[in-house]
Amino acid sequence: MNTSQLLEQIERKKSFLCIGLDTDLDKIPPHLLEEPDPIFAFNKAIIDATHHACVAYKPNTAFYEAYGMKGWAALSKTIEYLNTSYPEIFTIADAKRGDIGNTATRYAQAFFKDLSFDAVTVAPYMGRDSVEPFLRFEDRFTILLALTSNPGAFDFQTRMSDGQELYKRVLETALTYEHSDRLMFVIGATKAEYLKEVRKIVPDHFLLVPGVGAQGGSLEEVCRFGMTDRVGLLVNSSRKILYASQGADFARAAAMEAETLQKAMEEELRKRRSSQAS
Ligand SMILES: O=c1ccn([C@@H]2O[C@H](COP(=O)(O)O)[C@@H](O)[C@H]2O)c(=O)[nH]1
């Protein structure tokens, strides 16, 4: 998928919501555990109920890898279902990979070719040769961790390195990579006030912003500091949507949560348009 197709979907659905498919067998409705593939059964019901309100899904691979071969098979079925039934949806493998070049090439192949995701999250710590193998794939996006939503982000990411906070160095250095137009960056919603600084370095790139919902980030603040003329945001929420109910009505309850966020996003898009007009 390319940026124009993503933007077209955002404008049409009036949403920049990404739903995280962090499917946890300890949290899904118990009746689904009778299904031959409970993870896929849950994901399919969630996707069918919420696709009108979001533009992206982001399975975090940890929740699939945790269940071994069955988990990986469920991930594979989920991406195949999305690509077949809802090809307009942007798909992100939240895998946070990062390794030396020849290994990174294999990771890129796994997520972009074999599983056919549109994007994968990558850790920047190992530098250029660990990221560029992902960037070689046309119409695919590499989403680099820059300033994450967790408290531990302050251990390194905001520390000074040669007179500059490390997350800023990550952003600036990544812009020098070949095909840097295929980059997006992770900035946590819990760090919304940093978005002003982030936008000085990457004014046009899309940001993946997790942390609205269960982690308490504010959608309004994220939009105030991070939204661009071309939106530039994919805001993720996982647990708050997925586990809105553990009963037979779980898919409907998830849809209602997703619709609430979509309505708030529609309002933010309206505000952006009226400020552009004035
Ligand atoms: O900085 C980061 C990077 C990734 N995540 C991931 O996003 C979701 C958030 O889930 P919620 O249930 O909405 O809190 C999850 O997969 C994280 O691993 C993040 O939270 N922060």
Total DSSP helices: 12
In total, how many beta strands?
10
Alpha-carbon distance between the two ends:
33 Å
Helix content: 40-55%
Percentage of β-strand residues: 15-25%
Order of helices and strands: HEHEHHEHEHEHEEHEHEHEHH
CATH architecture: Alpha-Beta Barrel
Listed once per kind, the bound small molecules are: the ligand O=c1ccn([C@@H]2O[C@H](COP(=O)(O)O)[C@@H](O)[C@H]2O)c(=O)[nH]1
Q: Largest beta sheet, briefly? A: 8 strands, parallel, barrel
What is the domain tally?
A: 1
Shape category: globular
Over all CA atoms, what is the radius of gyration? 18 Å
Spans of at least 5 consecutive residues with low confidence: none
- Strand arrangement across the biggest beta sheet: 1-2-3-4-5-8-9-10
Which CATH class? Alpha Beta
Key phrases:
278 residues; alpha/beta; TIM Barrel; 8-stranded parallel beta barrel; two-stranded antiparallel ribbon; binds ligand LLZGTKA7
How would you characterize this protein structure?
With 278 residues, the protein is an alpha/beta fold. The chain has a single domain, classed as TIM Barrel. 46% of the residues lie in helices and 16% in strands. It is built from twelve helices and ten strands. An eight-stranded parallel barrel has the order 1-2-3-4-5-8-9-10, surrounded by five helices. The protein has a two-stranded antiparallel ribbon with strand order 6-7. The longest helix has 28 residues, at 250-277. It is globular. The model has no long low-confidence stretch (mean pLDDT 97). Bound molecules: ligand LLZGTKA7. Residues 20, 22, 60, 94, 148-150, 186, 188, 210-211, 213-215, 236-239 line the site of ligand LLZGTKA7. Ligand LLZGTKA7 binds at residues 20, 22, 60, 94, 148-150, 186, 188, 210-211, 213-215, 236-239.
